[in-house]
Amino acid sequence: MNIEKWKSQILRGTLEYCVLLLLRQTPRYGYEILQELNAYPFIASTESTIYPLLRRLEKEGYLYSFWRDSAEGLPPRKYYALTDEGQQYLNVLSKEWNNLSNIISALKGGSP
Fold first, then answer.
1. SS3 (DSSP) at 44
2. CA dist 20 → 23, 56, 87, 98 (Å)
3. Are 61 and 75 in contact (CB under 8 A)?
4. How far apart are CA 101 and CA 19, in angstroms?
């Protein structure tokens, strides 16, 4: 049984959704997103996964970015936030996630 392969496939399909959920709350910079995700071992990720995902989502029009000075005197950080189109996309993903969750609950013997 290769549970790590299965987990990898699940993560691949849900990481985008998780990033959008985080950005729904407030704009965040890349390393902050990574730290938030890494608080949950199942969806823990790496910089080599998160930054390309953020760039792709921005290119597709779901995110916009801006630079903000650091309060600690560190170099400015690039923040990401949802666009209106990104919020609409997140709404669709949330609906699909809820549908999938209901199906899995029904298959497990729970109530949908």
1. coil
2. 5, 12, 8, 15
3. no
4. 19
What distance in Å separates the CA atoms of residue 39 and residue 106, rounded to the nearest whole number?
29
* Helix pair 30-38, 47-59: axis angle to 10 deg: 120
What are the φ/ψ torsions at residue 63 (nearest 5 degrees)?
-130, 155
Tokens, residue 49 = 């996964």
pTM: 0.89
For residue 32, the surrounding DSSP H or E stretch is: helix 30-38
Q: Which residues contact 90 (CB under 8 A, 6 or more apart)?
A: 17, 20, 21, 24, 82
Nearest to 61 by CA among 36, 45, 46, 80: 80
The alpha carbon of 7 is separated from its chain's Cα centroid by a whole number of angstroms, namely 16
Q: What is the pLDDT of residues 29-77, one digit of tens each?
A: 999 999 999 999 989 899 999 999 999 999 999 999 999 988 777 889 9
